[in-house]
Amino acid sequence: MKKSPRTKYLxxxxxxxxxxxxxxxxxxxxxxLPPPSTEATLPLVEVIPIATxxxxxxxxxxxxxxxxxxxxxxxxxxxxxxxxxxxxxH
Length: 90
Known about the structure:
Strand order of the largest sheet: 1-2
Distance between the termini: 28 Å
Strand content: under 5%
Largest sheet: 2 strands, parallel
Number of helices: 3
Number of strands: 2
């Protein structure tokens, strides 16, 4: 068996996506607390499902990271060789 060379790239991409999600969630209070001169247009009840989904996505990403780590450790113990990534012709 061989280790996939794309695993680390995909894991890094997932971490970047989680960080972007964290950044977007950080701007959420600004949407919920508008300046006193304007009326709130986003009811809190509509934000709860979005926050729940975001929280679940972050949790899933953390679990995937753990699975990847365990898989890499098992591949190392089994002495898997790195796979050679084939480049598809254009």
